[in-house]
């Protein structure tokens, strides 16, 4: 929603008494430290009280109408507090935990008394009804988000979120948001519908944020950060990309996004822009979750919802990064696809610059700009080559140590072009991503991990080793999974400070693979 349209809505609502006059709003604004302390105090009071009531009710919550009755009581208390309280005050802050407890009690009985889909649908209606009643914008956003979660669970109809059902639920909530947002943008701003539009805009914001998070979750790991995320959602994404329907729907959404922007801005109808849209559509065909994110971006841009457009852009970038981990095509093919599409965008950008005959506007004097580029390049070379030198020095001079690999889940042993490794750690504390352990070496250099490191002096046959708590990832060429599946030891180079670098894998008898 554009700032002008938002201002028109606020003026219309203020004229009808739906919102206080802007001058009055300034008077009731409270400093954020006061709001924070009020919220802390409210939660410290509300949560123990709710726990006490639930404990006293006991087994009665699982049978009969007791849960519905208590849920209605907590909900009534929350709504009353929101109606009479000052913004940011203690009473208003009490409403949120009361509302969450009411939602928990309703969900507890609904999912026991009704089919899964019916219970989720009723919860979604409850959240949207609460969003209509309350006056606080932030609470409407939260309730919209909760309603979206309920709808996804309803359409998915599975608490474990089966891959294709999860995909269907996400497409459903995105399309609902699209329909509601387009209808809101086309509505005439007036005092009669100001209240409805304000509620819809706030709840829809929370709704689509949850949908975007769901798209990122369903797409699985993304490039660069994926190596530290384990097998998070990887199998789920594989099931989605193996079906033809998601690709078709994603392509249709990408085409709809391009058509919407072309209708909104004539400049998008230029041949170069249409070619860029075609490249995006190609990506959407290859990445079945990308079309939804592109459609959200287009609608947010057309409606000047810049914050939501940024969130959708981050989601789209995450989904594009997850293409690296798709197992439905070889890594070389994926690399070629990305190079071709990237080159296509580069050529279109160069043609656009040449076609307009414009020179880029410098934000700094030429000398300063060149110096900045030179310094940045030099720093990059120093940092990059420094890291390479450290690794090469460790490989050349580090002590050779073999560490036995611990068994892992066979389903996650091979992840396409890398293998997840784990080690036989002793009992460790739960702090930090890396663990310093003491190992005892035998005559063959095989390390037996003994204990977590402390300030004790090492024995002559002991060695300090620093290892990642959740194992390493061993990368290999496509098609070599069978070769590395027989690995039993990791070959490391370890320096005097315990820094360890995995350089190879060894077999049962330390033979090279």
Describe the structure.
The chain has 3 domains: 131-355, no CATH class; 365-397; 398-506, no CATH class. It is globular. The strands form 2 sheets. A 6-stranded mixed beta sheet has the order 5-3-4-1-7-8. A two-stranded antiparallel ribbon has the order 2-6. Strand 3 (434-441) and strand 4 form a beta hairpin. The chain has 513 residues and is α+β, with helices and mostly antiparallel strands. The chain starts with a helix and ends in a 7-residue tail after the last strand. The protein contains 18 helices and 8 strands. The protein has helices at residues 3-15, 22-28, 32-57, 66-84, 90-113, 116-133, 137-156, 163-186, 194-219, 234-241, 244-264, 271-286, 290-302, 306-322, 331-356, 366-397, 410-413, 481-484; strands at 399-404, 418-420, 434-441, 446-452, 462-468, 473-475, 489-494, 500-506. The longest helix has 32 residues, at 366-397.
Annotate the secondary structure layout.
Elements: H1 3-15, H2 22-28, H3 32-57, H4 66-84, H5 90-113, H6 116-133, H7 137-156, H8 163-186, H9 194-219, H10 234-241, H11 244-264, H12 271-286, H13 290-302, H14 306-322, H15 331-356, H16 366-397, E1 399-404, H17 410-413, E2 418-420, E3 434-441, E4 446-452, E5 462-468, E6 473-475, H18 481-484, E7 489-494, E8 500-506
Parallel strand pairs: 1-4
Antiparallel strand pairs: 1-7, 2-6, 3-4, 3-5, 7-8
Let me know the average pLDDT.
76
Major β-sheet profile? 6 strands, mixed
Helix percent band: 55-70%
Strands side by side in the biggest sheet: 5-3-4-1-7-8
- What's the total helix number? 18
What value does the Rg take, in angstroms?
Answer: 29 Å
Whole-number count of domains: 3
Structural class: alpha+beta
Estimated share of beta-strand residues: 5-15%
Total beta strands: 8
Low-confidence stretches: 20-28, 230-235, 360-364, 409-416
Distance between the amino and carboxyl termini: 60 Å
Sum up the overall morphology in one term: globular
Order of helices and strands: HHHHHHHHHHHHHHHHEHEEEEEHEE
